[in-house]
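Handout, section B. The chain below has 305 residues.
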Amino acid sequence: MGKIAYIYPGQGAQKPGMGKDFYENSPASREVFDRASQLLGLDMKALCFGEDPRLDITEYTQAAMVTTSLAMTAEMEKRGLPKPRVTAGLSLGEYCAMAAAGVLRTEDAICAVRRRGILMQEAVPAGKGAMSAVLAMTAEAAEQAISSIADVQIANYNCPGQLVISGKTEAVAQAEEALKAAGAKRVVRLNVSGPFHSPLLKKAGEQLFEELQAIPVMEHAIPYVANVTAQYVYGTEEVRELLKRQVYSPVKWQQSVEAMLADGVDTFVEIGPGRTLTSFIRKIDRGAKTFNVEKWEDLEQIWNQ
């Protein structure tokens, strides 16, 4: 393998049964799940492995996703699989990236996202905010199309031809029509519980910042890429501020991947349920090598490279 990045999916990738095979086969993974259950007072096995309706509720989703991805990472580290030179994660996945880079302890990352999920869930009353995916339109054209509409903004720059907008429900509806008129191939309303990565969540970000003061941020051996800036983070000084801003600022995922590619990264390992980030990377650079770790047997394909 060449220069490797570990990358982690965000909210929306969750699925029933995620991580169950790791729990059954790996003592290292089992320890992460069991520790999360103890810390949060939640039965993570019931939440992640069965048909638990809470899995799609933000305040539970976030802890479940981070626990699962870090449980998988624990087994990879135990095996001595090729180590990353940088890490990154989409929105919620940034906490996994930080733990994998050594910025946060695993248990602190899990506890932080539990509080993050609760704060985000409570930030905007149900029905007051919305998000929509915008397909087959350039970022520049989308930004221009919605520039005159208040209370809506680009929330995610995922890859060429795929953006997400977020904001007040009525503003998002207005923006949907403006984007279609400006040439978007499709604009699809997302089934989410809030207007994430919009200024409507600024208070939640500020509340999270205060709570993050109690969580130690450690010097790390490898950098991670911050969603807010799409830049490598080497030190500890700005970590909490970046996490605060991340709650209500656009996720610059495409730009983050481009920064890693420019740094010589040629292999991306997506760790967690689904293959969302892999599909984005293929649209950003078809020449990049990608692997997924979401099932136990996926570890073998990496081990054999």
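Note. The mean pLDDT is 95. Compare this with the example in section A.
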